[in-house]
Structures are given as C-alpha cells and as structure tokens.
Design a protein that fits this description.
By secondary structure, the protein is α/β, with parallel strands linked by helices. The strands form 5 sheets. It has a 7-stranded parallel β-sheet, sandwiched between helices. A two-stranded parallel sheet has the order 6-15. The chain binds nicotinamide-adenine-dinucleotide (NAD).
Amino acid sequence: MIRLLILGGSGFIGSNLIETLLHAGYTITNFDRPGTSPAHFSSHPAYRFVPGYLSDNSHLRNVFNQEPYDCVVHLVSSLIPSSGYDEFFNDREVNLTAGYEIVKNMMSNGCQRIVYFSSGGTIYGKNGKEVNSENDQLCPLTYYGYSKLAMEEFLKFSSRIHPISHLIVRPSNPYGSGQNLFGKQGLITVALGKILQNQPIEIWGDGQVVRDYLHIRDLSNAIHALVEKGIDNEVYNIGSGQGHSVNEIVTIIHKVAGCNTGVEYKPARPVDIPVNILSIDKITNHTGWKPEVNLEEGIAMLWKAMQLNEKRIK
Ligand SMILES: NC(=O)c1ccc[n+]([C@@H]2O[C@H](COP(=O)([O-])OP(=O)(O)OC[C@H]3O[C@@H](n4cnc5c(N)ncnc54)[C@H](O)[C@@H]3O)[C@@H](O)[C@H]2O)c1
C-alpha cells in the first residue's frame, strides 16, 4: 500500500488523479486550501483531507508530522501561462520558496520521493522545435514556464545532495471533467462552457496555433504507471504526441455539441509559439503507457458530462 501526500489535490488534475489512485488501492492525504476537498471523496476510508496554505510553513510542517509518506505529489501552482511579473513576484512563496520547505519537510518525514508537475506546454518555449523531447532545450517565454524550470532545477539539485529522488512530469494540455469552465486556461473545456452559455468561443490569433491535447484519464493513468514502476530521477513528457490547431478543435467542438455559437478572434499573444507537440516515446518505452482516449470521443464525453451537470444544477 503506497501512502501518498498530494499537495493541491482538490484541483482539476489532483481530483482526477486521486480518483485513479484510490481505485488502485493507494492511501491519500490531500493538502489543499481550507474548504476545497471534493465532497465525493470524504467517506472513502483511504482518503484524508488536511487543510492548509502551502506558503505557511507551520501548515506544511503539520501535514508532514501526521504520518510517514512514501511519496509526495506536488501540484500546487498559483500561476497560469498568462500570469505576469506581479503575480510571479507576489506569489513567489507558493510557486518557488515553498518547494524548498517541501524538501526540508520530506527529509524530517523520511519521505524519499517527489513527483513534480511541471509544464510540457510552456517549458520548451521558443527553442525552434515543433515536437519536443525531454532533452530538448528549455526556453520558457512566460513567468509560469520559468517558475516550472526553476522548480525542476531545484528538485534535481536536491536529489544530488539529499537522499531523495524526483520524478518530473511535463503534461501537455489536459482536458476533461473537473476543469474550470470559466477559467483562463483549457481551450476545450472553456470553449464547451461558452457553447453551454450560448456565447461565442474566444480565440487568440488566427486559430492556427497547434497544441497537444490529452484526456485527463490518460494523464492520471500515466502518473499511476510511473509511480508504480518506481522510476526515479527522470523527466517525462505526458501528452498525446499529436498536434491539433485551435481551429480544428473548434470544428470538433461544434460537431460534438451539434451547434455553433460563433467564434470571436482576438489579437494574437506574443507568448503563443506556433506549434508545441510532445514526444511521448520515453514514457511509452519505459512504462508501456500510451494515450487511449480518442480526441473526438474525449470531447464528446466531456460535453455529455457538462450537460448532465447543468441539468442537475437547474
Ligand atoms: N491544467 C493544465 O492545463 C496543466 C498543464 C500542465 C501542467 N499543469 C500543472 O499541474 C498542476 C495542477 O494543475 P491543475 O490544473 O490541477 O490546477 P488547479 O488550479 O485546478 O489546482 C491547483 C490546486 O492547488 C491548490 N492551491 C493553490 N494555491 C495553494 C496554496 N497556497 N496552498 C495550498 N493549496 C493551494 C488549489 O486550491 C487547487 O486545488 C499545476 O502545477 C499546473 O501548473 C497543469
């Protein structure tokens, strides 16, 4: 039985990952902001919620003092790709220095493994490549991407000087249930949300930007496969390995939803590089994992879930 401490487990990726790992028999402690624990886990005997703020060292010490953990999964980030300098600077304790405290607490807890959620969509940045492998140059163009690079380097450094190991994962663009319909990231979910509200889909630029989209179930299964294999001190891209333009995604969305509420094109953003696709050869070769959810089917599943949810709310 693996005892996991998940930092930021109440969010989109965390709640889906917890579901997968509880199902696989793991024991989960979720540390997240007070009042955020997903209600459907509350009665599960292998789930526990410890409320707290990552930037408060006493909260972090409290959760690490509760029991020994086999592995920490670090999902907390208060930044998104569009965050600017002010957010980066004001939130440096959450996104950077808390990482130092996490490692310190792992040492006193005896916990030797950390899985860190970096970003495959932003860490490669403007390196001149369209399909990126793990060893390609890292040239982030955003403060968000830079914060991921800084944390990756800190964890690699910590693994050299302390008896801990890191597993860095770089997801592409996950989509699926649990993602914020009204958020500022997640094209597929936000676009379906616009259709649900009978509003036009907003597109930055001409819609030719190509990205790699991955269903959240595939992402959760990939993390499960890596943790189960006990792979340490490695970096993995996790994506579909396929590229789709924003215009292609919008066409699929209109087809799945069976209606078209229009598209509103907005000025292109300088940080949106033309193409970003992840090579997934490494994780596939090391674990046998590969994505299973077809893009159109994944979008259809999400649309169905959103409509059911809307009916329940009304
Ligand atoms: N969603 C994506 O498209 C995507 C893609 C690649 C990488 N990632 C990375 O994966 C991780 C999880 O992403 P997500 O989409 O689930 O994000 P999310 O915002 O849905 O979840 C983050 C969680 O962290 C918690 N949190 C934030 N600040 C906190 C604090 N100070 N103390 C304690 N908890 C705090 C939030 O309450 C939330 O539950 C992030 O690090 C993100 O950068 C996300």
